[in-house]
Design a protein that fits this description.
The complex is a heterodimer of chains A (136) and B (393).
Chain A (H helix, E strand, L loop, with lengths): L18 H7 L5 E5 L5 E2 L14 E5 L3 E10 L5 H6 L2 E8 L3 E7 L11 E8 L4 E7 L1
Parallel strand pairs in A: 6-8
Antiparallel strand pairs in A: 1-2, 1-3, 4-5, 4-7, 5-6, 7-8
Chain B lengths: L3 E8 L10 H16 L8 E3 L8 H9 L5 E3 L7 H14 L5 E8 L21 H6 L6 H16 L3 H16 L2 H9 L10 H6 L2 E3 L2 E2 L9 E9 H4 L7 E11 L12 H12 L8 E4 L4 H11 L7 H5 L13 E2 L4 H4 L7 H13 L11 E9 L5 E10 L1
Helix pairs in contact in B: 6-11, 10-11
The chains are: A mainly beta (136), B alpha/beta (393).
Chain lengths: 136, 393
């Protein structure tokens, strides 16, 4: 008998604000919102602009190029999947389009650095794909 | 004098609750804090509760204690809840809405083996949108603070040894506090004596650049604080400790924001401004020490050091209770070495009061002014900041 291989925890696909974001990942699109009235970038996704009072937001797809704003190397985790992956790098990525997102960075811990240029790739699952950044 | 004073305090004396519930811990601390003030249950006309004992605490906590409040406040902002509660109690008293406010906390985090810092086994059943964006990546609470430390190092040249100084200082204070020493042993920490910078740097990395000894302990615990109006304060057992100013703020991630700057940069100036004093006048700095980086960033944001200069500032034992050149930091031993049951903001108020009464185990002679700064949520991500300035007559 073999033990079940632990799986990555995945986002709820039907959470109302973020459902469109996760749906778009299935076609490998990293989306963000731009306010049609004031032009502000909104991220994470919402139904309202956080800059003005507008409720008119447009979805755009990012080119997936950015830099590592900061990061950490996770060496201890309570979840079986993440424990099986230790150590791994997670950080905040500044995307060229003007938003900041948390993501895993597929880089050996010793090579992780603030300011590292990164580009988007994808890890596919049945209902969503997970963005993963690699050195550009 | 201003309108509201802390009249009674009590800290639960154990770090392992031995089968007591959170509610039992809260009630024990409440009655002993009221006794400390020379008051009774019948005097309490306002309750402040962060909801840690279960759903709907605003409905149930008064009945459990047996009090009849005219003010019920269930502000819940993590570890900073108690600084927010103290601020609200002072305002409610100043407005004449109540005269005797009771703040309580109880936790059995250690007995429940809650891995607060390193992540849950399961994601939440109904995630909030922000959490639903972050949960696939395996970030932990400690990791979130670590991203602040990493950026602070890259931006300002701060070193791991400088961060370690904070843990060394709080342990030195803990060693002088018998409750902390007994507690460290009770929760299974083998070395309960003083530690060095090399000990911190030699402990294992949990989330780079934070080592095990950069992280707070996980204990059971609880406490209570009684805040009263000036007329009640004139007739209590111990010298009143006055609330001179307060500030509240929240922070969250965003493009272009500086992750090394916490919401304390807003709550601090508000509190100091109300009090009419500056950081250089503070004798006692009770700063939420979930991690060493928490203290470093908040000391800067409160104005004890310029942004980016916290590393050199904390070096050389400056923040020890018996050293000149800066305030005494977390003289009870802090969350790093005395107790951290999950939301330790109430202990910041309690130890500040001990110092201003002259009752601390690491007493600063003649201490007059203290700051208690609570941090809730997670630095590097969503967090709350509550600053309270306290002074004796």
């Amino acid at each position: 008998m073999t033990a079940a291989v632990p799986e990555r925890p995945l986002p709820a696909p039907d959470e109302p604000d973020t459902a469109p974001f996760w749906a778009a990942t299935r076609s490998h699109k990293l989306t963000y919102q731009v306010c049609l009235d004031c032009g502000d970038v909104v991220f994470y996704p919402r139904r309202h602009c956080t800059g003005c009072l507008s409720g008119s937001l447009d979805w755009r797809a990012s080119a997936g190029l950015g830099t590592v704003y900061t990061f950490t190397v996770i060496r201890q985790h309570g979840h079986p999947y993440f424990r099986s992956r230790l150590p791994y790098v997670v950080g905040w990525i500044d995307l060229a389009e003007g938003f900041r997102m948390l993501a895993e960075i597929a880089v050996p811990p010793a090579d992780a650095a603030v300011g590292l240029p990164v580009q988007l790739s994808w890890e596919d699952h049945a209902e969503v794909s997970i963005p993963v950044f690699r050195p550009a | 004098m201003p309108g509201a004073a802390i009249a009674g305090i009590h800290e639960f004396d154990k770090r392992v609750a031995g089968g007591l519930s959170k509610l039992q811990i809260k009630a024990e601390c409440a009655r002993l804090a009221l006794a400390d003030a020379g008051l009774t249950w019948a005097d309490v006309d306002a309750v402040y509760d962060a909801g840690e004992s279960g759903f709907g605490s605003g409905l149930t906590i008064a009945e459990y204690f047996g009090v009849n409040p005219r003010v019920v406040d269930t502000t819940s902002v993590g570890g900073s809840s108690y600084e927010f509660h103290a601020a609200h109690a002072a305002r409610d008293i100043a407005a004449g809405a109540c005269r005797v406010a009771l703040l309580t906390y109880g936790s059995t985090a250690h007995s429940e083996s809650r891995a607060i810092g390193t992540g849950a086994r399961r994601p939440p059943a109904e995630p909030q949108p922000a959490a639903n964006m972050d949960l696939p990546y395996g970030m932990t609470l400690i990791g979130s603070y670590a991203t602040v430390a990493q950026r602070h190092m890259a931006q300002y040249g701060t070193t791991a040894a400088q961060l370690a100084e904070i843990a060394v200082t709080t342990r030195a204070h803990a060693v002088r506090n018998p409750a902390a020493v007994a507690g460290l042993a009770d929760i299974g920490i083998k070395r309960t004596g003083e530690i060095t910078v090399d000990d911190v740097l030699g402990s294992r990395l949990i989330a780079d650049p934070l080592h095990l000894l950069d992280c707070c302990i996980v204990s059971d615990g609880g406490g209570a604080v009684v805040i009263v109006s000036a007329d009640v304060a004139s007739d209590i057992r111990k010298p009143p400790v006055w609330i001179l100013g307060s500030g509240e703020a929240v922070g969250y991630p965003g493009f272009g924001s500086d992750i090394t700057t916490t919401a304390a940069v807003s709550s601090g100036p508000e509190a100091f401004g109300q009090a009419g004093i500056g950081p250089d006048e503070i004798d006692i700095a009770m700063i939420y020490d979930s991690f060493t980086i928490t203290v470093l960033a908040i000391l800067e944001d409160l104005g004890f050091a310029k942004k980016g200069e916290g590393g050199p500032y904390v070096a050389g034992g400056r923040l020890r209770f018996d050293q000149p050149g800066g305030p005494a930091l977390n003289t009870d031993g802090g969350g790093l070495s005395s107790n951290h049951p999950g939301m330790r903001g109430i202990f910041l108020l309690i130890e500040a009061v001990r110092q201003l009464r002259g009752e601390s185990t690491s007493q600063v002679p003649g201490a007059r002014l203290a700051v208690a700064h609570g941090n809730g949520g997670q630095l590097g991500s969503r967090h709350a900041a509550g600053t309270v300035i306290l002074g004796r007559e």
